[in-house]
Design brief:
101 residues, alpha+beta, GMP Synthetase, Chain A, domain 3, three-stranded mixed sheet, 54% helix
Length: 101
């Protein structure tokens, strides 16, 4: 007779709850950042930059002008400090990419 293995399966409800909680944390942080972006970076940068995604603690920001890439990089420390405070530590890194705003 073949011995039965212990099942490592979980109830579907707990799996879905975990997935939704993770998605809410990431998307909720992005929503909060987008809502507060003007206050975080100021009017000039906000007009030419856009928070695009949050994944694994990284906020990807799209920048449509090379000069604003430099400015945002220069202000990285202050921006990250504000982002950490706003997202309760969910954002720990800033990635700047050329993209549509």
């Amino acid at each position: 007779m073949i011995p039965r293995r212990k099942s490592s399966s979980q109830p579907i409800g707990s799996v879905i709850h975990g997935v939704l909680k993770n998605a809410q944390r990431q998307h909720g942080a992005l929503f909060d950042i987008q809502r507060e972006w003007l206050a975080i970076v100021g009017k000039g940068l906000a007009a030419h930059t856009k928070p695009a995604s949050v994944r694994n603690g990284q906020l990807t920001v799209h920048v449509d002008r090379p000069g604003d890439n430099f400015t945002l990089s220069y202000q990285r420390t202050q921006v990250l400090e504000r982002l950490r405070e706003l997202t309760k530590g969910a954002v720990t890194e800033l990635v700047i990419r050329a993209g549509q705003v």
